[in-house]
Design a protein that fits this description.
Distance between the termini: 52 Å
CATH topology of the domain at 44-198: Rossmann fold
Structural class: alpha/beta
CATH class of the domain at 44-198: Alpha Beta
GO molecular function, one term: medium-chain fatty acid-CoA ligase activity
InterPro entries: AMP-bd_C, AMP-bd_C_sf, AMP-binding_CS, AMP-dep_synth/lig_dom, ANL_N_sf
Strand content: 15-25%
Domain AMP-dependent synthetase/ligase: 64-404
Pfam families: AMP-binding, AMP-binding_C
Domain AMP-binding enzyme C-terminal: 452-527
Shape: globular
Length: 543
């Protein structure tokens, strides 16, 4: 069903227009074109073929800038060739798994490319994992090798894995191999392509339990065209990927860089002022973030924000969670109309993109589905609801995942996959996401989506961030409890905040309780861990 929709909607002319606008369609000599065709035929469009093609197209171009310096595309190719031989010597072959627990640096990309060149599946591990989570994921997926930064040695040491390789070193002596030692010990000549292409396995956020592995095969050009139709990125830009590379959004832009010939600027840790400094210093034209990073930058003193010139930045690409309150407007008022918010999930990848015009007109909207993407709002029976009515969001595109590694799948209706969220299309044609389909509560017979209340509270001038959950109530069945973090130096009472909600939303959406916290619990991708918020008064840290 979805393929029919896609075939009817997609046209070669649209793809050519999008790719041409991005500067991807470029003149090459017949010799280079022949090499490119063979490389992509042998290695596919994934990391192995994508970065190998850049070594042909632009061998002396700068591919990575991290805290250790610069690497050209030719150097990246040589390093991954040598590392692939090193991993093969440890027993990694086609169909095996290579787990990567690295922050944003060259080692993450080295390991990704090397594993792909062996036809091994690549499992990205969250750098914020606790010991039990890490052990459970590794026992479930059983990778042949774990590549990790030295700072995670204690966590990885608790898991039963066959081989370990350190991706980033903090000391001079090590008991295990490192990426650099394997590269130094092996030949960097090109390898023979495997019979099988690698799969990328991205873990879900794990906000409600143990993260699930969501594998997908190599993305084709159609998926890139879809994103580029809504994100005006261009060939050869310098892109600071501040979002974690192990996350769908960070990795997605790493994948786009293979097509765009981007110079990827990386730093291992995010710091709000350092981010501004790196973007200015490295003359970046695009920045890839998650919303909490924008919040932290905007929480800097005004004089600090004003000290940095981001006039070269044309795209700030945000995804991973909704933009709370008027965050989009605050960002654009400070740094210009360069913000693009993409809505999606680990399972469906992308579903809608809101550009600056969308965010100016409707800051809480998710925008519109990009090219060759279908989004429908379905009721409980799987039938499409009229525009304006709420229902479950279902998505069709070229990057739907293949089912969880531990078994199970998202619901599929007529080729469209559930995003796990509830939402509606407004009269303006934009998609509005109302919250997770399992977050909605029924309080006194009325349906309440916590996200709507969160957005309302976040617009109060004293509030930095907020999370709301449903808790049991003997009278109403469920009641809403909101957890609020105030701006530094701000003072406001719960009665005033309840009054604020009452002025802007229906009375039944006013939280019965407001709890003030110093910060909300979050995972490494910036999502609030609502399961860690107190469900009863005995757990409250303040009230």
């Amino acid at each position: 069903m979805f393929q029919k929709i896609l075939t009817g909607a997609a046209a070669a002319g649209t793809s050519a227009k999008v790719l041409g606008r991005a500067g991807i369609i470029r003149p090459y000599s017949p010799v280079v074109l022949a090499k490119l065709a063979k490389t992509l035929k042998d290695w596919g469009p994934g990391p192995a073929g994508g970065f190998a093609s850049l070594a042909i197209r632009s061998p002396h171009g700068i591919g990575i800038i991290d805290e250790l310096g610069e690497l050209t595309f030719a150097e990246m190719q040589a390093r991954s060739n040598a590392l692939a031989r090193g991993l093969a010597a440890l027993g990694v072959g086609e169909g095996d798994g290579v787990a990567i627990m690295c922050r944003n640096h060259r080692g993450f990309i080295d390991a990704t490319n090397a594993a792909a060149k062996l036809g091994a599946d690549i499992l990205y591990l969250n750098t914020a994992f606790a010991g039990p989570q890490l052990v459970e994921v590794l026992e479930r997926d059983k990778p042949a090798v774990v590549v990790y930064d030295e700072e995670f040695a204690g966590l990885v040491g608790k898991a039963d894995v066959a081989h370990r390789v350190i991706g980033w070193t903090d000391s001079e002596s090590h008991d295990v191999e490192t990426i650099e030692s394997l590269i130094a010990a092996h030949d960097s000549a090109d390898l023979t392509p495997p019979q099988r292409h690698a799969r990328i396995v991205i873990l879900t956020s794990g906000t409600t339990g143990t993260p699930k592995g969501a594998p997908r095969s190599e993305a084709g050009v159609d998926a890139a065209v879809s994103l580029l139709s809504g994100l005006p990125l261009r060939y050869g830009w310098r892109t600071h990927i501040a979002a974690p590379l192990f996350h769908t959004w960070g990795f997605g832009h790493l994948a786009l860089s293979m097509l765009l010939g981007s110079t990827i600027v990386l730093r291992r840790r995010f710091d709000p002022e350092s981010c501004l400094e790196v973007v200015q210093q490295e003359k970046c034209q695009s920045v890839v973030v998650i919303p909490v990073m924008l919040q932290r930058i905007l929480a800097l003193p005004q004089e600090t924000q004003d000290a940095y010139d981001l006039s070269l930045v044309e795209v700030v690409a945000s995804s991973g969670s909704a933009l709370p309150g008027d965050l989009a407007l605050t960002w654009m008022d400070q740094f210009g109309d360069n913000l693009y918010s993409t809505y999606g999930s680990t399972e469906v990848a992308y579903a809608a993109i809101a550009g600056p015009r969308d965010l100016r007109a409707a800051p809480s909207s998710a925008g519109h589905p990009p090219y060759a993407t279908v989004v429908k709002i379905l009721d409980a029976g799987g039938k499409e609801v009229p525009a304006g009515e709420s229902g479950r969001i279902f998505v069709g595109n070229g990057l739907l995942f293949e089912g969880y590694t531990g078994g199970g799948h998202k619901e599929i209706v007529d080729g469209l996959m559930s995003s796990g969220d509830m939402g509606r299309f407004g009269e303006d044609g934009r998609l509005y996401v109302e919250g997770r389909d399992d977050d909605m509560i029924v309080s006194g017979g009325e349906n309440v989506f916590p996200q709507e209340v969160e957005d309302c509270l976040a617009r109060h001038q004293a509030v930095v961030e907020v999370a709301a959950i449903g808790v049991d109530d003997a009278e109403f069945g469920k009641r809403l409890r909101a957890f609020v973090v105030l701006r530094e130096g701000a003072s406001v009472g719960d009665d005033e905040l309840k009054g604020w909600v009452r002025e802007n939303l229906a009375r039944y959406k006013v939280p019965r309780e407001i709890v003030f916290l110093d910060e909300l619990p979050r995972n490494a991708t910036g999502k609030v861990l609502k399961r860690e918020l107190p469900k009863d008064d005995s757990e409250d840290s303040s009230a």
